[in-house]
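#data-curation
PF: Archiving a pair of folding outputs for the training set. Convention for this channel: one message per protein, sequence first, C-alpha cells after, nothing in between. First:
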Amino acid sequence: MTSRSRPEIVLTGLGTACAVGTGCPALWEALAAGRDGIRDIERFSAAPFRSRLAGLWPRWDRANAEACTALELATESAREAWMSARAPQAAVAPHRVGVVLGTCFGERYGGFSELARGVAVAIGAEGPCLTVPTACAASTTAIGVGRDLIDEGAADLVLAGGVDVITREVFAGFHALGALSGGKCTPFGASVGLTLGEGSGFVLLEGLERARHRGAEPLAHVLGYGISADAFHATAPDPTGGGVMRAIRAALLDAGTLPGEVDFVSAHGTGTEANDAAEWLAVRSTIGDQVPISSSKSLLGHAQGAAGVL
C-alpha cells in the first residue's frame, strides 16, 4: 500500500485532436469501429523515404507545413478538456490552475516553455506551468506531475497532456533510425516498424471532493504512476525490459494495487521489434501473461509526445 494518505485525484475533462479527427467522440467512434487515420502524406514529399504513410490530423492533410503549429493543435484539445469538465464554472482562482505539457519537439525544436505558456493563456491559467520533455512518455508523465501538483497543494485544477506535430525533419529522423514500417504498423504483430502520427490530448485533474462539490462527474481515478530510465541506449530500449518493469512496479506501489487487480494494459506498443519484445517481457514479468494488452498506434500512429495521453 502507499506510505501515506492523500486526496483522491480524478479526471473530469478530456480533449483530443489526432489522426482520426477532432474531439473525444471522433476518437471513440474510430476506436470502436476499428477505423484508422493512417494515410498517404501530402504535407511534404515523402518520396525519399521507405514509408509514405502517417497519422496526420485531418484538418492539416494538405496544409502548408509551415502553417502547422503545435500551439494550435494543443489548444484545440486543451479547450475541449477544459470545457467538457465545466471548469469555467468551477470558481477556481486563475493562480490555482496549473498546466503540465509533455512534448518531444516543442514548437519546431524550440519554444518548449512558451508552448506550455500558450496553452495556459488559452484557458486563463496562471498557476504552475511546466513542460515535460520525457520523449514518448511525456504526456503520461505530465499527468503524473499534475497529480503531484494537486497532491502537494500547489494547484486545485491541472490541465495535463501533450502535443507533437509531424514535420519532414521528424519523419527523416525516424527514417534514418530505420524505425519506420513500409506499411501500416501492427503493434505486437507480424509487421515490424512504426508509423508516425501527430496529435494532442489533455485531461483535467482535480480532487475528488472538489469535483463532487461542484457536481462534476469523475471519469477516472488517477491512482498512481511510476517513472524510470533504462540508461541503456539513446533510442533503443533495454531488451530485458528492466526500465519498464521498474516503472510498472512503482505505479502499482504508488496506487496500492496488486498485479492481479490489473484488468487491461494500454501499451506503448510502437510496432518495432525492440520495443514490443521488451515491453511484453516487462508486462509478463510484473503483471502476468493473461492480462489483455493492446496499443492504439495501429489506428493513430505514434503521436510522440502525445502518444501516452491519447
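PF: Second:
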Amino acid sequence: MRTRHALLATISLLAFASTASAADLPRQRMITKAPVYTPVYNWTGPYLGINGGLGWGSSSWDGFGAGSLDTSGGVVGLTFGYNWQTPASPLVFGVEGDIDWSNIRGSFSNAGCPGGCETRNNWLGTFRGRVGYAWDRVMPYITGGLAFGDIHANQAGLAGASTTNAGWTIGGGIEGHIAGPWTAKLEYLYVDLGNMSCSAPSCSVPTSVNFHTNIVRAGLNYRF
C-alpha cells in the first residue's frame, strides 16, 4: 500500500514539474512578413508621347488703326524628349520638343478692313529645356526655349501673306507616373512668334501682324 501511495505521489510531482517548466518557456513570436521594397522612381531616359489642348491669345494689324483681334483654337501633336536625374538628387534636367497641328485663329473688321481680316496659325512647334523637382513619381517643372510656326495674314478679297517665324516660349507644368512606362502631364506655355509683314497689293494697307498665344494642354508619354 505504501508503495502504491509513493508511486502516485511521484507521478503527481513529475506532472507538476512538467507544467511549471512549460509555463516558464518564452512565448513564440508571431511571424510577420517583411515590408515590400518599392524602389525610388528615377526619371532618366528618353520618351515619346502625344499632346493636345487649347490656345488663346491676340494679334494686331498695325496698319489698320485699331485692328486687333482675339485668337483661339485647338492644338494636337507629338512630343519627344530626354530626362537626366542622378540617384542622389531630386533635380531632373531635360530637353523636350513637340510639333503640333494648330487651329488657332481670329478675325476683325473695321473701316479699313470692312470685309474682315484674319490671323491664323496652322502649325506650331517648340524645343525647350526643362528643370523639374521630383517627389518620387510626381514632378513639377519649369520650361522655356525656342518656338516656331507659321503666321497667315488674310484680308478678304486679297492674296494676304504668310511666313514661318521663330520666336520664344516659357511655361511650366506637372508630370506624374501612371503605371509601367507611362507618364501623364498637364502643361502651360506662353508662345510669342513675333511679327510678319503684309504689303500692298497682298494687303490693302502695308501692315505688321504679330502673333502670341497661351496654350494649356495635356500629354501622355511612353518612357523607353
